[in-house]
Design goal:
Elements lengths: L3 E4 L7 H15 L5 E4 L6 H11 L1 E4 L2 H5 L7 E4 L6 H9 L3 E4 L3 H15 L3 E6 L5 H9 L4 E5 L22 E5 L5 H14 L13 H13 L5 E5 L5 H14 L2 E4 L5 H8 L4 E6 L5 H14 L4 E3 L14 E2 L6
Parallel strand pairs: 1-11, 1-12, 2-3, 2-4, 4-5, 6-7, 6-8, 9-10, 9-11
Antiparallel strand pairs: 5-13
Helix pairs in contact: 5-6, 8-9
This protein binds iron/sulfur cluster.
Length: 328
């Protein structure tokens, strides 16, 4: 029986997710027709379902769907992961109002990509999947001079290997990264590349975001006190899946769940765990975490709950609706 839960702090929503969801909710209220969002606004199934069911939001995943918006659908929201310039310009051509809910920390990487491309650099963009929406967006800023390199341990279509990746001119390359990778694996990958290309430029501030780092730090700090972890995340949340991997590396027992409903199936796995750490992705609503805590409380009224650490105190500016004329 689980006797003690250590709740990671911080966990759950980051400032970028709060800003993006709020932008969608506010825009949906002002619109009678369904509001269109390009890609899942954040990578969490519950968030997406709630927006569809409670706010009449309609999600599209590609340009073809954007081009066939239902009559009256005149506004599109870009998700927190960012979009490539091609999507922006197509939205402008279609005469759509836009609300750019891209996290400012992703926009920062786009800005770096444009700057280094202008200066003649070849960009090595470290990511965990070439199909991740954030990687697609950043890559799209300078596709002719960007190579996506798999972070250590990740392979897949479109990902170059850091040990073998080739560049046109080793004296003119820069490394950028996806914002939500494993801190430790990213450092190791950058080092591999630096060893191979000593003249590679590493921008002064790294691209991993504060929320990714803080949630990984919280898991590291709890891990000596727990037998295992529960990580609330959708599988397509990069930062959430990195938390799961980290928790597994540190304790050998880490289990993913979307919601409290997944706990029944996990019961056999949890046998023998007496203390458990709980954390959640930057896109997981905290009420889902408390449903899990309450599930264990109901089974053991003497359950001890430990919650140490600090909440973040970061807010991002509200995303505004921009008329199509302002973009063309
Ligand atoms: S996880 Fe990081 S990059 Fe992604 S929305 Fe949150 S703060 Fe922004």
């Amino acid at each position: 029986m689980i006797e003690r839960i250590h709740l990671a702090k911080p966990r759950g929503f980051c400032a970028g997710v709060v800003m993006a969801i709020s932008a969608v909710e506010k825009a949906a209220v002002l619109q009678e027709t369904p509001l269109t969002v390009y890609h899942s606004i954040v990578h969490n199934h519950t968030v997406v379902e709630r927006l569809e069911q409670q706010h009449n939001v309609h999600f599209v995943e590609d340009l073809e769907a954007l081009e066939q918006l239902p009559a009256g659908g005149d506004t599109v929201v870009f998700s927190a992961h960012g979009v490539s310039p091609r999507v922006r310009s197509r939205a402008a051509e279609l005469g759509l109002y836009t609300i750019d809910a891209t996290c400012p920390l992703v926009t920062k990487v786009h800005t770096e990509a444009k700057k280094y491309a202008r200066e003649g650099f070849h960009i090595l963009l470290i990511g965990d999947s070439a199909q991740h929406q954030e990687v697609i967006g950043t890559y799209g800023e300078a596709p002719d001079v960007t190579t996506v390199v798999g972070v250590l341990g990740k392979q897949g279509a479109g990902l170059a290997d850091p040990y073998t990746v080739q560049v046109p001119d080793p004296s003119k390359i820069v490394v950028l990264t996806q914002t939500t990778l494993s801190v430790d694996d990213t450092q190791k990958t950058v080092q591999i590349l630096k060893n191979r290309f000593p003249q590679m430029v590493i921008p002064p501030s790294d691209d991993l975001c504060y929320a990714t780092k803080n949630r990984q730090d919280a898991v590291k700090s709890i891990s000596p006190q727990v037998d295992g972890f529960l990580v609330l995340t959708s599988t397509h949340s990069s930062n959430g899946m990195r938390l799961l991997e980290l928790a597994h590396t540190l304790t050998g027992r880490a289990y993913r769940l979307e919601t409290v409903q997944d706990l029944d199936a996990l019961e056999p796995e949890l046998l023998g765990l007496r203390s458990v750490g709980i954390t959640s992705a930057a896109s997981t609503p905290d009420d889902l975490v408390w449903e899990v805590v309450n599930y264990f409380k109901a089974k053991n009224p003497a359950l001890e709950l430990v919650e140490e650490g600090e909440w973040e105190n970061i807010e991002f500016r509200e995303a505004k609706r921009v008329a199509p004329a302002a973009r063309v």
